[in-house]
Design brief:
Largest interface: A-B, 21 and 31 residues
Largest sheet of chain B: 6 strands, mixed
Radius of gyration of chain A: 32 Å
Helix content of chain A: 55-70%
CATH class of the domain at 13-108 and 182-260 in chain B: Alpha Beta
Shape of chain B: globular
Domain ABC transmembrane type-1 (chain A): 229-440
Strand content of chain A: under 5%
Strand content of chain B: 25-35%
Distance between the termini of chain B: 18 Å
Main location (chain A): membrane
CATH superfamily of the largest domain in chain A: MetI-like
Biased composition (Polar residues) (chain A): 7-23
CATH topology of the domain at 13-108 and 182-260 in chain B: Rossmann fold
Number of strands of chain B: 10
Structural class of chain B: alpha/beta
Distance between the termini of chain A: 46 Å
CATH architecture of the largest domain in chain A: Orthogonal Bundle
CATH superfamily of the domain at 13-108 and 182-260 in chain B: P-loop containing nucleotide triphosphate hydrolases
Structural class of chain A: mainly alpha
Family (chain A): Belongs to the binding-protein-dependent transport system permease family. CysTW subfamily.
Number of helices of chain A: 20
Strand order of the largest sheet of chain A: 2-1-3
CATH class of the largest domain in chain A: Mainly Alpha
Keywords (chain A): Cell membrane, Membrane, Transmembrane, Transmembrane helix, Transport
Oligomer: heterodimer
Strand order of the largest sheet of chain B: 6-7-8-3-9-10
CATH architecture of the domain at 13-108 and 182-260 in chain B: 3-Layer(aba) Sandwich
Order of helices and strands of chain A: HHEHHHHHEHHHEHHHHHHHHHH
Number of strands of chain A: 3
Radius of gyration of chain B: 18 Å
Shape of chain A: extended
Order of helices and strands of chain B: EEEHEEHEHHHHEHEHEEHH
């Protein structure tokens, strides 16, 4: 293959041939170059195909998670049911449980059925009320508790439609499948069509997907990423605050100050090894140290953040050392030559020049940590969390979920509506990762443009 | 192996600035500098010449302890600056380097503005009390570096944007700004074209008024042009040291003669 293995030709024959004709050797070399280019193009093509396939599948499955079906009803907040004594005492109102609100929705359907275009032969309003998400009465109750003055009024409410009704408008549920489904009947679907025609049923952008907490197995329509986004955000803060200074300080020390001996060699090798340790091992470590030994709370962003910090440190250290190494030694010499101390030369000259590389490494480490699932499963972030963590710093110790774990969680659930939720969550995660990478690129450009 | 052949240097000495006695330098197991003793005078340009790898740059870097940054490098013997041993344990190399400035082979301005390049040294050594002081130092240094007229209108522009010769003069100005007593130059013109070289050489000659200048050069013509004293290094030994005119016209050692006539090196 190589030129060296070509048989020797006599020099005279080389010089007599015409330049207009390629000799055997040139042809061979050109052919091998063309082959190599083709391999490269094929490799790129496969990569692009894989990417396109991935994105299409995720977008096809997940984009519907951002749209949700709502049913608008005029609900009469009946004082006889919500506040029997008429005192408007918040405590008395609070005594009425979610079940006490279900009849209000039923009554609202009864009212709709009075209209000629809505209603089916033999369909009861209790049957129709089941089209509303089980979250509906709870939301109604929350509203009344916040606005007790509205009791006795009629309020227009946008209720979440049940998962099956929502699925009907997204093509997931059909009349045929509804016949075999105990959660929904074909009649309900017909009624849904009528409501849509009457403008009472609408499909809107689903802010709730981003702001709501997770919901239980049988109300997928109410499940959102709010807690997971907040939990991931808190963890990223912990990782950034801990991993960046520790990682940069460690790299500067190792690269610029530490003596080069067998001990630092071992440390160096082990940092590279740590970067290759499977992430679940960090989860076991976190479980043993932070939860069992230090007794930090389970499912808390602080523990997740600490574990992810351990995982991110090698990435940051390796990237930082590489960018420190890339600073030309002449800059260090220049600083030392005019009497700067080692530390001045590092902090005044080397570090600013290495900053873009350090930032990029850090953000890539953060992005890696954001997408990490396995270690979080072991420290309890997989728990079902309905309540939002409070504001920092207490919030770091409150239970929370994390974006990738939420994806994992939803893929475990049986209701088909969670398929779109999981894909939707992946889209959100990817968007966050893209934003972080974009920030890395922008910061890099900004810093490099200085000179 | 030629140690026995080294002749005694009979040069009359006036105002010795640096006195090196029996300096040995080892890189790991390699004995790079062998028994070098040299007396460098104040307000004089001393040139170190010799073939590649003969140790002249290594020896130069011993004079402001830049070799300290190389882990495996070990220096023995005595180097006295104004009678004080710079390799004494009590000496802080940072303080020493403020006294003994250095200009490197490749121009290496900081990727900052021209002003900041010059002002950096005075700032970290606390030479200026306020901005006005600093402005004065910057202008004075740039004038000393013979580059003031070219850059006075663009002090806020990056030093890396200058031409190679300007960059090197900027580096000289930067070294001068900290008011050193000795200026070490490690092949300062090797990356420059003939015109820039001529400018830098002229500058070196002017600097002689105030400093003791030690210059390492590959060009014998340059050594002859700018220096008053010349030291010839060969294979880690100081072969001959004396008046430049004497070295180039009437060398004592046969190796020096071979080198300057182009037979070795």
């Amino acid at each position: 293959m190589t030129d060296a293995s070509m048989p020797e030709t006599s020099p005279s024959s080389k010089h007599t041939s015409s330049l207009l004709q390629q000799d055997v050797r040139t042809k061979k070399r050109n052919a091998s170059e063309a082959r190599f280019k083709a391999y490269g193009a094929i490799a790129i093509g496969i990569a692009i195909l894989a990417l396109v396939a991935l994105m299409t599948s995720i977008l096809a499955n997940g984009s519907s998670a951002f749209r949700q079906t709502f049913i608008s009803l005029d609900v009469y907040l009946d004082p006889a049911k919500l506040d029997k004594d008429g005192t408007r005492d918040p405590e008395a109102i609070a005594k009425v449980s979610t079940f006490g609100y279900a009849p209000l929705i039923k009554a609202a359907f009864d009212k709709e059925f009075e209209k000629p275009e809505i209603g089916l032969e033999g369909m009861k309003s209790s049957e129709a009320a089941k089209m509303i998400s089980k979250e509906g009465p709870a939301e109604l109750r929350r509203y009344v508790l916040e606005n007790p003055d509205m009791i006795g009024e009629t309020v227009r409410f946008d209720f979440l439609a049940g998962g099956r009704i929502d699925g009907y408008f997204k093509g997931r549920v059909t009349m045929e499948s509804a016949e075999r489904d105990k959660n929904v009947s074909p009649e309900q679907l017909q009624l849904a069509d009528q409501l849509k025609a009457a403008g009472l049923l609408k499909t809107k952008f689903n802010w709730g997907f981003l702001t709501r907490a997770d919901a239980s197995e049988n109300r997928p329509e109410a499940a959102g990423l709010g807690v997971a986004i907040l939990g991931s955000f808190y963890m990223m803060i912990v990782v950034l605050v801990l991993a960046l200074p520790i990682g940069v300080a460690a790299s500067i020390y190792l690269e610029e100050f530490a003596p080069k001996n067998w001990f630092t060699d071992i440390i160096e090798v082990n940092i590279s090894n740590l970067a290759a340790v499977p992430s679940i091992v960090f989860g076991i470590l976190g479980l043993a140290i932070f939860i069992n030994f230090a007794h930090l709370p389970q499912s808390a962003p602080i523990v997740g953040g600490l574990v992810l910090t351990l995982m991110t440190l090698p990435t940051i250290i390796i990237a930082t050392r590489a960018s420190l190494k890339a600073v030309p030694p002449s800059i260090r010499d220049a600083a030392l030559g005019i009497g700067a101390s080692k530390m001045q030369s590092v902090f005044h000259h080397v570090l600013p020049l290495a900053a873009p590389g350090i930032l990029t490494g850090t953000i890539i480490g953060l992005a890696q940590a954001l997408g990490e699932t396995a270690p979080l499963l072991l420290i309890g972030m997989v728990a079902f969390v309905r309540d939002f963590p409070s504001a920092p710093p207490e919030g770091f110790f409150d239970p929370a979920a994390a974006l990738p774990v939420q994806v994992y969680n939803w893929t475990q659930r049986s209701d088909p509506a969670f398929v779109e939720r999981a894909s939707g969550a992946i889209i959100v995660l990817l968007v966050f990762l893209l934003i972080m990478n974009a920030i890395a690129i922008i910061l890099r450009r900004r810093f490099e443009r200085r000179w | 192996m030629y140690d026995t052949l080294i002749p005694e240097n009979a040069v009359d000495q006036k105002e010795i600035k640096i006195n090196a006695e029996d300096v040995q330098v080892y890189y790991g197991d390699t004995h790079a500098i062998k028994d070098v003793s040299v007396k460098i005078e104040d307000k004089t340009v001393t040139a170190f010449i010799g073939p590649s790898g003969c140790g002249k740059s290594t020896f130069l870097r011993c004079l402001n302890r830049m070799n300290d940054t190389i882990d495996i490098c070990r220096v023995e013997g005595k180097i006295l600056l104004d009678g004080e041993d710079i390799y004494d344990k009590k000496v802080d190399p940072v303080q020493l380097r403020a006294k003994v400035g250095m200009v490197f082979q490749k121009p290496n301005p900081f990727p900052k503005s021209i002003y900041d390049n010059i002002a950096y040294g005075p700032r970290i050594h606390g030479l200026a009390k306020n901005k006005a002081d600093l402005d004065v130092i910057v202008e004075k240094s740039l004038r000393r570096g013979a580059i003031w007229d070219e850059v006075k209108d663009r002090l806020d522009q990056p030093g890396t944007g200058l031409s190679g010769g300007q960059q090197q003069r900027l580096c000289i100005a930067r070294a001068v700004a900290t008011e050193p007593e000795v200026l070490l130059m490690d092949e300062p013109c090797s990356a420059l074209d003939p015109i820039a070289t001529a400018q830098v050489e002229e500058l070196i000659d002017e600097l002689r008024q105030d400093y003791s200048v030690v210059i390492v050069t590959h060009s014998m013509q340059q050594a002859a042009r700018v220096s008053q004293k010349t030291a010839f290094f060969h294979l880690g030994n100081l072969v001959e040291f004396g008046e430049t005119s004497q070295i180039f016209t009437n060398p004592v050692d046969p190796r020096t003669e071979s080198y300057i006539t182009g037979r070795i090196g």
